[in-house]
UniProtKB/TrEMBL annotation:
NCBIfam families reported for this sequence: gltX_bact
Gene3D superfamilies: 1.10.10.350, HUPs
Gene this protein is translated from: gltX
Family of this protein: Belongs to the class-I aminoacyl-tRNA synthetase family. Glutamate--tRNA ligase type 1 subfamily.
Organism field: Rhodobacter maris
GO BP, sorted A to Z: glutamyl-tRNA aminoacylation
UniProt protein name: Glutamate--tRNA ligase
C-alpha cells in the first residue's frame, strides 16, 4: 500500500451514543473514519458520547464495542467517555465566560417561552435573544443561570465541507446556544467541541444530520481560538425504496448482519462502497480500500441499501478467504445466530468440506447448508424434496450402485465412471443416477457435486449411507 503524503498527522474519531444497538449507518461512519486514518498513517479514536445518563446503558456500550470488534475496526488508545470529561467541559465554558465570549443568562424557561409566543404573535423570529447578553454584571441577580455562547449576530458562518462543499449559515439564524446548564452540567454541543479539540481530531467525518451542528460548533472553536477541524458530512443510508432506513426495511443493527451470516470482510467492502466509489470497482480488499479511500470520493446523495449486492460481495469474499481463516468466523456466526456449536469432529469435517461448500455460498448459513453432508451422521434425515427423489426405482438403482462401488478405486474420476456405466446399463441419463445419490448422502437435492461428496466422505461412509436408502 502506498503511503499518502500529508502535511499533518490525521486523527479521526467515531463517537456513538450508547442508547441502543450500533446502527448500520453508524457502522459505515466508523468505517469511513477508520479507512481515512489507516490509509493516511493516522490515528483512529473511539469516544462514547454517554452524556445522556437516562438513556445511556453499559449494555449498549458493550454492543458498540462488540460490533466494532466483529467488523474489524481497531481503534487506537483507550475508549474515551464523554460523561467522565464533564469537569473539563465546564472549565471551558467558564473560560469563554472569562474571555467575554460567553455570558450568564438568568432567563427562566417561562420567560423564554413567553418571548417566543410574543414573537410568533408578531410574526417575528422565535430565535431567543437573551436580555442578559450585554447586561452589566452588577445587575446580575442571585440565583441559577446558564452560560450561553455569545454568538455573532451579523455576517455568516461558513463550513468548507469535504463532502457537501461550501455551506453558509446566516448568523442571525443561529441562537446563543447554552454551553453550561444551570445545574453545572455541560451540553452535548459544547462537549463535542472540547473533546474533539483535546483529542487532537483533525477530521470530523459524520452523518449529514450533524451539518447544522457544525455551524454552531465552529463558533465555539472560534471563541476559544482553536483550530477548526476539517468537516466531512456524509449522506445517510436509505432503504431500497429511497426512504430513511428503518426496521421496516429489515436489519438495521450491525449485530443482526453477523447473525445473518455475512462475513465481516464482505460487510466492510459493501459499506465502503455504499456512498463512496473508486471508479467502477465493486470488489476490493482492505488494503485497496485503505489505499484508495479519499473524502472526495464520497457522494452527496443518500445511498440505498441493496441486499442482493451485499450478498454478491459477501459471496466473493467467502470464496477468497483462506479456509483456515473462515473457521473461527463460522464459529462466531453460529454463536451470534444462536445456533448449536460444532463438535471437534464436525469442525474437522467442515474444514475438509470448505473447498466444496464455499462455491456459490453468499452467507455462512448457505455455506453450512452446502457442507451439511459432511456434518451430519447416519441415519441421514431427509427433507421433503429428497424424500421424493428416493422412490422405489431410485432405491433399486442405489442398491445396484452399491454393489458396483465395492471395488472402485475411490477417485472422483473412477466414481463418475462407475455411475456413468450404471446409467448406460439402465438406459438413463447420469442425472437420474445423481439425484438419488445426492438425497442419500446429504438428505437434500441441492448440494455440491455428488462425486466430490463421495470422494470426501470416503468409501465406508458412502457405502453405509447408500445402503441405508437402497431397496
Amino acid at each position: 500500500m502506498s503511503q499518502k503524503p500529508m502535511s499533518q498527522k490525521i486523527v479521526t474519531r467515531f463517537a456513538p451514543s450508547p442508547t441502543g444497538y450500533l446502527h448500520i449507518g453508524g457502522a459505515r461512519t466508523a468505517l469511513f473514519n477508520w479507512l481515512y486514518a489507516r490509509g493516511h498513517g493516522g490515528t483512529f479514536l473511539l469516544r462514547i458520547e454517554d452524556t445522556d445518563r437516562a438513556r445511556s446503558t453499559p449494555e449498549a456500550t458493550a454492543a458498540i464495542l462488540k460490533g466494532l470488534d466483529w467488523l474489524g475496526l481497531d481503534y487506537d488508545g483507550e475508549v474515551v467517555s464523554q460523561f467522565e470529561r464533564a469537569p473539563r467541559h465546564a472549565e471551558v465554558a467558564r473560560e469563554m465566560l472569562a474571555r467575554g465570549m460567553a455570558y450568564k443568562c438568568f432567563s427562566t424557561q417561562e420567560e423564554i417561552e413567553a418571548f417566543r409566543e410574543a414573537a410568533r404573535a408578531e410574526g417575528k423570529s422565535t430565535l431567543f435573544q437573551s436580555p442578559w447578553r450585554d447586561a452589566d454584571p452588577g445587575t446580575h441577580p442571585d440565583g441559577a443561570y446558564v452560560i450561553r455562547l455569545k454568538a455573532p449576530r451579523e455576517g455568516v458562518t461558513v463550513i468548507e465541507d469535504k463532502v457537501q462543499g461550501k455551506v453558509t449559515f446566516r448568523n442571525d439564524t443561529l441562537d446563543d446556544m447554552v454551553c453550561l446548564r444551570s445545574d453545572g452540567t455541560p451540553t452535548y454541543m459544547l462537549a463535542v467541541v472540547v473533546d474533539d479539540h483535546d483529542m487532537g481530531v483533525t477530521h470530523v467525518i459524520r452523518g449529514d444530520d450533524h451539518l447544522t451542528n457544525a455551524a454552531r460548533q465552529v463558533q465555539v472553536y472560534t471563541a476559544m481560538g482553536w483550530d477548526v477541524p476539517a468537516f466531512a458530512h456524509i449522506p445517510l443510508i436509505h432503504g431500497p425504496d429511497g426512504k430513511k432506513l428503518s426496521k421496516r426495511h429489515g436489519a438495521v443493527g450491525l449485530e443482526q448482519y453477523q447473525a445473518m451470516g455475512y462475513p465481516a470482510a464482505g460487510m466492510r467492502n459493501y459499506l465502503a462502497r455504499l456512498g463512496w466509489s473508486h471508479g467502477d470497482d465493486e470488489f476490493f480488499t482492505d488494503a485497496q480500500a485503505k489505499d484508495w479511500f479519499e473524502l472526495e470520493g464520497i457522494g452527496r446523495a443518500p445511498s440505498r441499501l441493496d441486499f442482493k449486492k451485499l450478498e454478491n460481495i459477501c459471496g466473493q469474499h467467502i470464496a477468497q478467504i483462506p479456509d483456515a481463516d473462515l473457521m473461527p468466523q463460522i464459529h462466531a456466526y453460529l454463536e451470534a445466530a444462536g445456533e448449536a456449536s460444532l463438535s471437534p469432529h464436525q469442525s474437522d469435517a467442515l474444514l475438509a468440506a470448505l473447498p466444496l461448500a464455499k462455491t456459490g455460498a453468499k452467507t455462512f448459513g448457505q455455506l453450512l447448508e452446502k457442507a451439511r453432508f459432511a456434518l451430519i451422521s447416519r441415519p441421514v434425515a431427509m427433507d421433503e424434496k429428497a424424500e421424493k427423489a428416493l422412490d422405489s426405482v431410485s432405491r433399486g438403482i442405489l442398491g445396484e450402485l452399491t454393489q458396483r462401488l465395492q471395488n472402485a478405486s475411490w477417485t472422483r474420476e473412477d466414481l463418475e465412471a462407475v455411475a456413468a456405466e450404471l446409467a448406460q446399463a439402465q438406459g438413463i441419463g447420469l442425472g437420474k443416477i445423481a439425484a438419488p445419490i445426492r438425497a442419500a448422502l446429504a438428505g437434500r437435492t441441492a448440494t455440491p457435486s455428488v462425486f466430490d461428496m463421495m470422494e470426501l466422505l470416503g468409501r465406508d461412509e458412502v457405502l453405509a449411507r447408500l445402503e441405508d436408502q437402497a431397496a
